[in-house]
Amino acid sequence: MAAAAAAGACLNHISRESTDIQRLAHFYKEIFGFEQVENPKFDFGVIWLKLGSSFYLHLIERDPNTKLPEGPWSATSAVADPKNLPRGHHVCIYIPNFDSFVQSLKDKGIKIHERVQADGKTKQVFFFDPDGNGLEVSSQSPVF
């Protein structure tokens, strides 16, 4: 029954909490080309970013009273090493001009982990945003 009730569902947005939403917004705008869009009013700082026609990222000002660490790094390590991300928490974005995108990450000095899937066709690169959130960029759009 739950699946029938969710017919037509689609991803609305992904959120990231940060102590510095301006810094995080700058990163996503510079690295991926997100554009900032109008924000609804909240009792705390928020920034809404949009990529393409339907991918939204909601940056939320971190509650200063929280005790949790910022950024998950990976599922297996508390060390910021992108080689742990293929099995850790991450968001994946498909980039059609994959090789030039990876070169731009290298040019910016961003630490990355590159790999090729077993199919020999799909290239991936893993890295972190400034708050330690895992990111993947893939050379293939998802087709299953």
TrEMBL record:
Residues 10-140 form the VOC domain. Pfam families: Glyoxalase. SUPFAM superfamilies: Glyoxalase/Bleomycin resistance protein/Dihydroxybiphenyl dioxygenase. This is VOC domain-containing protein. It comes from Penstemon smallii. Coiled coil: none annotated. Signal peptide: none annotated.
